Each structure stands twice: as C-alpha cells, then as structure tokens.
Amino acid sequence: MQVGIYRFNKQNLKRKDVKLLVAVKNRTIIGYILGQVHRRPRFFKTKRCGFIGELAVTEKERGKGIGKLLVDAFFDWARQKGVPYVTLFVDYRNRAGRDFWRKTGFETLMLEQRKLTDCARHRSS
Ligand SMILES: CC(C)(COP(=O)(O)OP(=O)(O)OC[C@H]1O[C@@H](n2cnc3c(N)ncnc32)[C@H](O)[C@@H]1OP(=O)(O)O)[C@@H](O)C(=O)NCCC(=O)NCCS
Description:
29% of the residues lie in helices and 26% in strands. It has helices at 10-14, 66-80, 95-103, 118-124, and strands spanning 18-25, 28-39, 48-57, 86-88. A four-stranded mixed sheet has the order 1-2-3-4.
C-alpha cells in the first residue's frame, strides 16, 4: 500500500458536523472514513445532507467487508444527525470505487463534465 500521511485539522475534528471513523485490527488502523454534514444553499428544499469526503482500506484488508462496515457506521452517525441522504464524489476512472459505491447502495445522479483549456494542454504536455 502506498503510505499516505493525513494531517486532519484537529480543530475540524472537534466540529460536531464532521466525523472521522477508523477501522482497527490488532491496534493498527486498517481503514478510515471522513465525512460531514453539508449545509445546502437556501433555495434547496433539503437544507442539510451527509457527505463522504474520503474512504480507504489498506490493500491487504480489502474485500473483507471493512469498507462497507465503515460506510454503515458513517450512516449510523448521519441518521443521528437527521440528514435524509448522503452524497459523495467518485473519480469516474476509478472503476473499483464506482463498483464499491454501487454495491453499497449509492446511485449516480450527476456526471461532472470537463474539457481542458489550451492553458492546461500546454502545461500537461
Ligand atoms: C473502495 C474500498 C474502500 C473498498 O473497501 P473494501 O473493504 O475492499 O470493500 P468491501 O469488502 O466492504 O466491499 C463491499 C462491496 O463492494 C464490493 N467491492 C469492493 N471492492 C471492489 C472492487 N475492487 N471491484 C468490485 N467490487 C468491489 C465487494 O464485492 C462488496 O460487494 P458485496 O457486498 O456484493 O459482496 C477499497 O478498495 C479502497 O480503499 N480503495 C482505494 C481508495 C478508494 O478508491 N476509495 C473510494 C474512492 S471515493
């Protein structure tokens, strides 16, 4: 597994609308989920919804239900917060990620479209 160092802002973690949950095995973190309650712009009927920002399980522990456990635990929290649904973004090129979210009950509502400007083309070539 690629090692990632995540510096979660401690102040953010104290916020009641932010939740970080970790999966632990033999005193080692093997997965985590980070999300929050989003306030939506006034013109929407639904004023608040849940949002999952990050989810990862260490490579060795994948395919054992840990990801789903973390999502279920996040939903327990979201339910307590009284939000009617939870949203997230997944990179369309992440086929495994898309399959995972579909299998955990998520559906695609919006598809973000992107076209590079000349500026970006020059930079990336
Ligand atoms: C996506 C990720 C969190 C899944 O975690 P996991 O612990 O392996 O998933 P689970 O074992 O709980 O699987 C839950 C369901 O998703 C399915 N699933 C999991 N990984 C899958 C994959 N690579 N391809 C297809 N289906 C997959 C499982 O088969 C299972 O379905 P089932 O309930 O019908 O058996 C993990 O692969 C990961 O950390 N990936 C890298 C980071 C990432 O892509 N995060 C999400 C992007 S937003």
